[in-house]
Amino acid sequence: MKRSLLLPMLMLAAVCGVAHAEKADSTKPTNIEADQMVYDDVRQVKTFTGNVIMTRGTLIIKAGRVVLTTDQYGYENAVLYAAPGALANFRQKRDGGPNLWIEGQAERIEYSEQTEVSKLFQRAHIQRMDGDRITDEVNGEFISYDSRAEFYSVNNTASGESKPGAGRITAVIQPKNPPPANAAQPSTPAQPATSAPAQRRQNGKDQ
After folding, report:
1. Residue 100's closest CA among 12, 16, 184, 5?
2. How far apart are CA 6 and CA 77, in angstroms?
3. What is the reported pTM?
Protein backbone atom coordinates (compact mmCIF):
# COMPACT_ATOMS: atom_id res chain seq x y z
CA MET A 1 0.00 0.00 0.00
CA LYS A 2 2.73 2.43 0.96
CA ARG A 3 4.64 1.76 -2.24
CA SER A 4 1.59 2.40 -4.38
CA LEU A 5 0.91 5.76 -2.78
CA LEU A 6 4.51 6.76 -3.29
CA LEU A 7 4.80 5.68 -6.90
CA PRO A 8 6.89 7.95 -9.15
CA MET A 9 4.51 10.89 -9.16
CA LEU A 10 2.07 9.02 -11.39
CA MET A 11 2.17 11.55 -14.18
CA LEU A 12 5.76 12.68 -13.70
CA ALA A 13 6.86 10.87 -16.82
CA ALA A 14 3.98 12.38 -18.71
CA VAL A 15 5.18 15.88 -18.12
CA CYS A 16 8.92 15.62 -17.63
CA GLY A 17 9.52 14.67 -21.25
CA VAL A 18 7.63 17.55 -22.73
CA ALA A 19 9.62 19.70 -20.31
CA HIS A 20 11.85 18.59 -17.46
CA ALA A 21 9.73 18.35 -14.30
CA GLU A 22 10.82 19.82 -11.02
CA LYS A 23 13.38 17.27 -9.74
CA ALA A 24 12.69 18.15 -6.10
CA ASP A 25 9.14 16.77 -6.46
CA SER A 26 10.49 13.19 -6.51
CA THR A 27 11.53 13.51 -2.86
CA LYS A 28 8.14 14.77 -1.67
CA PRO A 29 5.33 12.61 -0.24
CA THR A 30 2.23 11.89 -2.34
CA ASN A 31 -1.10 13.02 -0.89
CA ILE A 32 -4.40 11.69 -2.22
CA GLU A 33 -7.88 12.98 -1.46
CA ALA A 34 -11.07 11.33 -2.74
CA ASP A 35 -14.62 10.52 -1.72
CA GLN A 36 -13.92 6.79 -1.79
CA MET A 37 -11.10 4.24 -2.13
CA VAL A 38 -11.38 0.54 -2.99
CA TYR A 39 -8.33 -1.73 -2.70
CA ASP A 40 -8.27 -5.17 -4.35
CA ASP A 41 -5.19 -6.87 -2.90
CA VAL A 42 -5.57 -9.99 -5.06
CA ARG A 43 -5.66 -8.08 -8.34
CA GLN A 44 -3.35 -5.34 -7.04
CA VAL A 45 -5.82 -2.63 -8.06
CA LYS A 46 -6.53 0.56 -6.11
CA THR A 47 -9.42 2.77 -7.20
CA PHE A 48 -9.99 6.32 -5.97
CA THR A 49 -13.37 7.85 -6.83
CA GLY A 50 -15.00 11.24 -6.43
CA ASN A 51 -13.19 14.55 -6.90
CA VAL A 52 -9.76 12.93 -6.71
CA ILE A 53 -6.91 15.34 -5.96
CA MET A 54 -3.34 14.06 -5.91
CA THR A 55 -0.40 16.27 -5.00
CA ARG A 56 3.33 15.77 -4.77
CA GLY A 57 5.50 18.84 -4.41
CA THR A 58 4.49 21.17 -7.23
CA LEU A 59 2.59 18.43 -9.09
CA ILE A 60 -1.21 18.63 -8.86
CA ILE A 61 -3.50 16.03 -10.50
CA LYS A 62 -7.30 16.28 -10.55
CA ALA A 63 -9.69 13.66 -11.90
CA GLY A 64 -13.09 12.11 -11.28
CA ARG A 65 -11.58 8.64 -10.84
CA VAL A 66 -8.04 7.24 -10.64
CA VAL A 67 -7.19 3.54 -11.02
CA LEU A 68 -3.73 2.30 -9.98
CA THR A 69 -2.61 -1.22 -10.87
CA THR A 70 0.59 -3.16 -10.21
CA ASP A 71 1.65 -5.73 -12.83
CA GLN A 72 3.40 -9.05 -12.21
CA TYR A 73 6.79 -7.37 -12.48
CA GLY A 74 5.98 -4.70 -9.91
CA TYR A 75 5.49 -1.83 -12.33
CA GLU A 76 2.74 0.68 -11.63
CA ASN A 77 0.15 1.81 -14.19
CA ALA A 78 -2.18 4.72 -13.64
CA VAL A 79 -5.38 5.68 -15.46
CA LEU A 80 -7.06 9.01 -14.80
CA TYR A 81 -10.72 9.42 -15.79
CA ALA A 82 -12.45 12.78 -16.07
CA ALA A 83 -15.61 13.50 -14.12
CA PRO A 84 -18.76 13.90 -16.27
CA GLY A 85 -18.56 17.12 -18.25
CA ALA A 86 -14.98 17.81 -17.12
CA LEU A 87 -11.41 16.85 -18.01
CA ALA A 88 -8.71 15.09 -16.01
CA ASN A 89 -5.79 17.47 -15.67
CA PHE A 90 -2.34 18.00 -14.21
CA ARG A 91 -0.05 20.97 -13.53
CA GLN A 92 3.61 20.91 -12.50
CA LYS A 93 6.54 23.26 -12.18
CA ARG A 94 9.46 22.69 -14.55
CA ASP A 95 13.19 22.99 -13.97
CA GLY A 96 15.13 25.60 -15.90
CA GLY A 97 13.60 28.80 -14.59
CA PRO A 98 11.89 30.40 -11.60
CA ASN A 99 8.35 30.30 -12.97
CA LEU A 100 8.15 27.60 -15.68
CA TRP A 101 5.12 25.28 -15.71
CA ILE A 102 3.52 22.51 -17.75
CA GLU A 103 -0.20 21.72 -17.88
CA GLY A 104 -2.16 18.93 -19.56
CA GLN A 105 -5.75 17.73 -19.76
CA ALA A 106 -7.87 15.07 -21.46
CA GLU A 107 -10.91 12.90 -20.88
CA ARG A 108 -8.58 10.00 -20.05
CA ILE A 109 -4.87 9.91 -19.22
CA GLU A 110 -2.81 6.71 -19.01
CA TYR A 111 0.73 6.30 -17.69
CA SER A 112 2.94 3.20 -17.74
CA GLU A 113 5.83 3.13 -15.29
CA GLN A 114 7.53 0.33 -17.25
CA THR A 115 7.58 2.03 -20.64
CA GLU A 116 7.49 5.60 -19.30
CA VAL A 117 4.91 6.41 -21.96
CA SER A 118 1.95 8.66 -21.24
CA LYS A 119 -1.17 8.77 -23.38
CA LEU A 120 -3.88 11.44 -23.37
CA PHE A 121 -7.20 10.52 -24.98
CA GLN A 122 -10.00 12.75 -26.33
CA ARG A 123 -9.85 16.53 -26.13
CA ALA A 124 -6.19 16.17 -25.27
CA HIS A 125 -4.19 19.31 -24.61
CA ILE A 126 -0.65 20.03 -23.36
CA GLN A 127 0.87 23.45 -22.87
CA ARG A 128 4.09 24.87 -21.47
CA MET A 129 4.07 28.19 -19.66
CA ASP A 130 6.46 30.87 -18.49
CA GLY A 131 4.52 32.47 -15.68
CA ASP A 132 1.11 33.24 -17.15
CA ARG A 133 2.42 33.28 -20.74
CA ILE A 134 1.88 30.15 -22.85
CA THR A 135 5.11 29.40 -24.73
CA ASP A 136 3.76 26.49 -26.78
CA GLU A 137 0.78 24.15 -26.86
CA VAL A 138 -0.64 21.18 -28.79
CA ASN A 139 -4.20 19.89 -29.15
CA GLY A 140 -5.63 16.68 -30.58
CA GLU A 141 -7.81 13.69 -29.88
CA PHE A 142 -4.71 11.69 -28.89
CA ILE A 143 -1.30 12.72 -27.55
CA SER A 144 1.40 10.13 -26.80
CA TYR A 145 4.65 10.98 -25.07
CA ASP A 146 7.69 8.74 -24.62
CA SER A 147 9.81 10.33 -21.89
CA ARG A 148 12.79 8.04 -22.53
CA ALA A 149 13.11 9.02 -26.18
CA GLU A 150 11.82 12.57 -25.53
CA PHE A 151 9.36 12.06 -28.38
CA TYR A 152 5.67 12.85 -28.63
CA SER A 153 3.02 12.58 -31.31
CA VAL A 154 -0.40 14.13 -31.77
CA ASN A 155 -3.20 12.46 -33.75
CA ASN A 156 -6.71 13.40 -34.78
CA THR A 157 -8.48 10.26 -33.46
CA ALA A 158 -8.51 8.72 -30.00
CA SER A 159 -7.29 5.43 -31.47
CA GLY A 160 -3.87 6.96 -32.01
CA GLU A 161 -4.19 6.90 -35.80
CA SER A 162 -4.65 9.99 -37.91
CA LYS A 163 -7.42 9.62 -40.48
CA PRO A 164 -8.39 11.98 -43.32
CA GLY A 165 -11.52 13.95 -42.47
CA ALA A 166 -11.41 13.07 -38.78
CA GLY A 167 -10.41 16.56 -37.75
CA ARG A 168 -7.26 18.57 -37.39
CA ILE A 169 -4.61 18.73 -34.69
CA THR A 170 -3.32 22.17 -33.75
CA ALA A 171 -0.02 23.46 -32.43
CA VAL A 172 0.98 26.96 -31.37
CA ILE A 173 4.65 27.83 -30.85
CA GLN A 174 5.35 31.30 -29.51
CA PRO A 175 8.60 33.23 -30.13
CA LYS A 176 11.24 32.36 -27.55
CA ASN A 177 12.11 36.00 -26.95
CA PRO A 178 9.00 38.12 -27.47
CA PRO A 179 9.50 41.91 -27.33
CA PRO A 180 8.67 43.37 -23.92
CA ALA A 181 5.28 45.01 -23.58
CA ASN A 182 6.86 48.39 -22.80
CA ALA A 183 9.35 48.28 -25.67
CA ALA A 184 10.05 51.74 -27.10
CA GLN A 185 8.47 52.48 -30.45
CA PRO A 186 10.75 53.51 -33.35
CA SER A 187 11.32 57.22 -33.23
CA THR A 188 10.00 59.43 -36.03
CA PRO A 189 12.82 60.64 -38.32
CA ALA A 190 13.66 64.28 -37.74
CA GLN A 191 12.30 66.65 -40.36
CA PRO A 192 14.75 68.98 -42.16
CA ALA A 193 14.76 72.57 -40.90
CA THR A 194 12.55 74.91 -42.90
CA SER A 195 13.86 78.16 -44.33
CA ALA A 196 12.88 81.51 -42.85
CA PRO A 197 9.68 83.05 -44.20
CA ALA A 198 10.08 84.96 -47.43
CA GLN A 199 8.84 88.18 -45.79
CA ARG A 200 11.68 87.99 -43.23
CA ARG A 201 14.24 87.57 -46.03
CA GLN A 202 12.76 90.53 -47.86
CA ASN A 203 12.97 92.67 -44.73
CA GLY A 204 16.66 91.83 -44.46
CA LYS A 205 17.30 93.09 -47.97
CA ASP A 206 15.53 96.39 -47.26
CA GLN A 207 17.81 97.18 -44.31
Report:
1. 16
2. 13
3. 0.67
